[in-house]
Design goal:
By secondary structure, the protein is of the alpha/beta class. It folds into 3 domains: 5-173, Thiamin diphosphate (ThDP)-binding fold, Pyr/PP domains (Rossmann fold), CATH 3.40.50.970; 190-356, 3-Layer(aba) Sandwich (Rossmann fold); 359-545, Thiamin diphosphate (ThDP)-binding fold, Pyr/PP domains (Rossmann fold), CATH 3.40.50. The protein is built from 19 helices and 22 strands. Strands 3-2-4-5-7-6 form a 6-stranded parallel sheet, sandwiched between helices. It has a 6-stranded parallel sheet with strand order 11-10-9-12-13-14.
């Protein structure tokens, strides 16, 4: 007989599978036991057991970046939800699709301050696209379908759904089979496309800045074709280096944390900035000073999938409301406009990029050669993840990203992101090599997720740069209060012994030869590995020393 009724928890899992979800990241909790039961030996979907909800949510974020589908995270109420909020904030600022399910108190206990009860609409209101609670199990399919649509549409982002624990046991009559939710596409208006074409035709020094979340490989390929045909140099916004092959002759660099001198000069000279996907946030614009709002000195064409963003800070001359794939495909079909006029500047910026990002651009720097060796050794499709800290400045300056979805890094500057992100990437793409870069402070925030990586038999390598201090904050301290060290010194465990205690391979390196040997052994060994790099404590940033 055809089953016409279903337990709500089982129906929820059915709906996740129908939407293509194959992995759920989470920490088990009593408030959603029925869902854990529904996942028991369920074909087509696996629960990745994490050790802390913040790590679980960050892993789900990374999984969403790799697949283009919402990363799924499940946590228990109260403390579980508050821990997970760190990953939700990352997904929101980076425009990454995610759905966070939170077990909730039973419906008859709401607003009594029951055990671990929180009003999630108030808690997550500013860091999620939609926050809701499913009180009526018969509407489960309606809510889940809407959640996928909201997470994937316009500017992608996280959705938070609370699940009252008693609701999950309700028996419901099954509705018709759900539809698979595809990310919607928004075609740019023909009139604004024509205006952009005319602006390019009259420009002398145009510049593309690509960025934002949820780019597709088709969109990236079309962006490359557009840049090649028109001869326009391409830069990327903060943490978006994986959007464009860094070895491509049109690639001119990225707008990093802190001013990149040659790019700041290039932006000042630009007479047409074509921003495709980025929000033009604080870090990318050097604290909203270049360009300077509200009306920038440069002519600005801003492409964004949500109409509320263009003009929010910067008033564009041309606003194109479109997803990046649709826009890039449209402009890639154009005939050449004036590539011979733009080519010399493109070549000049490319030369400046190569000079600035060469190891020889910094003096007496012991870390730069190690990062260059990493870039030269790993496959072109290797995935690099990182959290926050000055150690990442070497990665973003000296590593070359050559394949889509090869960089996973939070624009929110969230420490602890690297290892959970590597887990999410390794689960999504087990055929690719994955490396998590972390400072000692950054690593210690989510180091317990080593257990998750070993438990699930993943292949990834963690590279911990150890200077026994919160390096970024120490730099700010030395600038604002020279010599007055407060709160930034640390003691650390023996990282090699720590990693081995989980069953991971581990080695310590103090120079280039030692790092090269450790990297070779980790790649040959497979599984989970950790390499500790002992950093010269006087070295604060690329080419910059405490003295």
């Amino acid at each position: 007989m055809t089953q016409t009724t279903r337990r709500a928890a089982d129906h929820l899992v059915d709906l996740l599978v129908a939407q293509g979800t194959r992995h759920v990241f989470g920490v088990p909790g009593e408030s959603y036991l029925a869902v854990l039961d529904a996942l028991h030996e369920r074909d087509g979907i696996d629960f990745v057991t994490c050790r802390q909800e913040g790590g679980a949510a960050m892993a789900a974020d990374a999984h969403g970046r790799m697949t283009g589908r919402p990363g799924i995270c499940m946590v228990t109420r109260g403390p579980g939800a508050t821990n997970a909020s760190a990953g939700v904030h990352v997904a929101y600022q980076d425009s990454i699709p995610m759905i966070l399910f939170i077990g909730q108190v039973a419906r008859d206990m709401v607003e009594r301050e029951a055990f671990q009860e929180i009003d999630y609409r108030r808690m997550f209101g500013q860091m999620a696209k939609w926050v809701t609670q499913i009180d009526d199990a018969s509407r489960m399919q309606e809510y889940i379908s809407r959640a996928y649509r909201v997470a994937l549409s316009g500017r992608p982002g996280p959705v938070v759904i609370a699940l009252p624990e008693d609701m999950l046991y309700d028996e419901i009559t099954l509705p018709p089979a759900p539809r698979y939710i595809e990310p919607p596409r928004y075609q740019p208006a023909p009139g604004t496309l024509e205006a952009l074409k005319e602006a390019i035709a009259s420009a002398e020094r145009p510049l593309i800045m690509a960025g934002g979340g949820n780019w597709t490989e088709a969109g990236i390929a079309a962006l490359q074709s557009f840049a090649e045909t028109q001869g326009i140099p391409v830069t990327v916004s903060l943490r978006s280096q994986g959007l464009f092959n860094n070895d491509h002759p049109n690639y001119a660099g990225h707008f990093a944390v802190g001013k990149v001198p040659y790019l700041a000069e290039a932006l000042n000279e630009t007479d047409l900035l074509i921003a495709i996907g980025p929000r033009l946030g604080e870090m990318t614009t050097d604290g909203y000073t270049n360009p300077k709002p509200p009306v920038p000195a440069q002519r600005l064409a801003h492409v964004f999938p949500e109409p509320e963003e263009p003009g929010r800070v910067y008033e564009p001359e041309i606003a194109l409301i479109s997803d990046t794939e649709s826009f890039c495909k449209a402009v890639a079909a154009w005939e050449p406009i004036a590539p011979e006029r733009f080519a010399p500047r493109c070549e000049s910026l490319r030369a400046a990029y190569k000079q600035f990002n060469a190891v020889t651009s910094v003096n007496n720097d012991t870390l730069a050669p190690l990062y260059k060796h990493l870039s030269d050794t790993v496959p072109s499709d290797a995935i690099m993840t990182n959290g926050a800290g000055n150690y990442a400045a070497w990665l973003h300056r000296f590593h070359r990203y050559r394949t889509p979805r090869s960089q996973l890094a939070p624009t929110s500057g969230s420490m602890g992101y690297g290892l959970p992100a590597a887990i999410g990437a390794a689960v999504a793409t087990p055929e690719r090599e994955v490396y998590a870069l972390a400072g000692d402070g950054c690593f210690m925030m989510t180091c317990q997720e080593l257990a998750t990586a070993v438990h699930h038999g993943l292949r990834l390598t963690v590279i911990v740069v150890n200077n026994a201090r919160y390096g970024t904050i120490r730099v700010h301290q030395e600038r604002e209060f020279p010599g007055r060290v407060s709160g930034t010194e640390m003691i650390n465990p023996d990282f090699v012994a720590f990693a081995k205690s989980f069953g991971a391979g581990a080695a310590r390196a103090t120079d280039l030869d030692g790092f090269a040997t450790a990297l070779e052994e980790a790649r040959a060994r497979g599984g989970v590995n950790l390499i500790e790099i002992v950093q010269d404590r006087d070295l604060l940033a690329p080419g910059k020393r405490l003295g």
